[in-house]
Amino acid sequence: MAQPVESSLLLFLVLLSPLVASAGIAKLNSSSPLFGIEFPPFNTAVSDTGCDGKLVVAEEARDEQTQPASLSPSLKLQMTRRAAAAGWTRKDSFLDSAQKDAVRIETMHRRAAARAGGERAYSPRRALSERLVATVESGVAVGSGEYLMDVYVGTPPRRFQMIMDTGSDLNWLQCAPCLDCFEQRGPVFDPAASSSYRNVTCGDQRCGLVAPPEAPRACHRPGEDPCPYYYWYGDQSNTTGDLALESFTVNLTAPGASRRVDGVVFGCGHRNRGLFHGAAGLLGLGRGPLSFASQLRAVYGHTFSYCLVDHGSDVASKVVFGDDDALLLAHPRLNYTAFAPASSPADTFYYVQLKGVLVGGELLNISSDTWGVSKDGSGGTIIDSGTTLSYFAEPTYQVIRRAFMERMGRSYPLIRDFPVLNPCYNVSGVERPEVPELTLAFADGAVWDFPAENYFIRLDDDVMCLAVLGTPRSGMSIIGNFQQQNFHLVYDLKGNRLGFAPRRCAEV
Questions:
Q1: Which residues form a coiled coil (predicted)?
Q2: Residues known to be catalytic
Q3: Rounded to whole angstroms, how far apart are CA atoms 233 and 365?
Q4: Would you state the pLDDT for residue 399?
């Protein structure tokens, strides 16, 4: 690969490394909790506990007045994160993550542009309705997300580790026959071995929610022929296969508890390429109708949330579908800001409406044009669980960078030519370096204040760097998962708003 491309990849992915935060700034919480997500009730009835529990799935009522009178209890799951390769230093892991982050961001830009250019949109179709909370394992650092959740698919259920990603919609697994697949842990999903597997036919309305392969098959028998799909993430990342229905079972945080959801729409991928190595597939949590979050809305409601622990922590994070967390809803510092209109060009993403950035309590001189989404899909700001660092489009990033350098002055020796991140400082012997405050201001008046450990990263005992990078002038800005650590984020899709509150995520 050409040197300029390498540099760009490193630049973009600086925030992705799961290991870079173990030696924190101002005492970065190296023992903080992991990453957690709760999902909302969306499309169907609920399942019983236990692996054999049934979930009756019903079509989501188009009219809100026909929604179920009551929703199921929230569902809580765990997710985990892959550790660094043996023998790797924090710097090695950081640079590797930066490369993957770069690919992810390029993918997002392309997807936003494609939506703006008229690529078919996805709209929610089915889902579940009760609160689900599971433990997610964070650790497979791949291009489209690094938080993993154990999902048992089929009948009898077989275990697969899937990447959880708020920046995409389609749920998919590598499937037999695997004609062109990446390496994964364990065997691929075999439809022939599951009694609950069903193809979505090419005449089914849900087939219209996915894009066909470049050489689409003719739909001769609408009620029998399978529905082929093609879903892309970047230049080399994509999945192609047949859209299908299957039973998904997830382990809950309570010992021995689980939930089974029947009729989940997913992609059975026979040709899959990209930076997904190690995982079995991807669990999409985007705004579109085919995402796992959307398909759970009828059962768990229109709210999901997650709480990410420190990157250096070995505690599992939680994903929760539902909105019955009384402690969170009563939190005195719970703030909400509106999502950008759902009609935004890239409706997969969760756009927020930023108005400005404050450093050291001072509003920076940034053009208002920076924050809007243009007709070609460029610009705007998204909140994303799959991108590590936060990114701001040029020249906004340079304004933020200069503001920190000016306010830091000669507090600590500046380190020149450090790879990827800038500025970096020598903080040898300083337990809690002092840095200017960082605040995001939203168009509706909400503000998000971050603790120092969420925007400065301590790579070792001596080096501390600003964990913010730039994207091309035409790119979007991204609030990544490093900035989201130890905040409980609530995705209220009915109220069209994002909630955030500081919280000890290990205790959620």
A1: none
A2: 165, 384
A3: 34
A4: 97
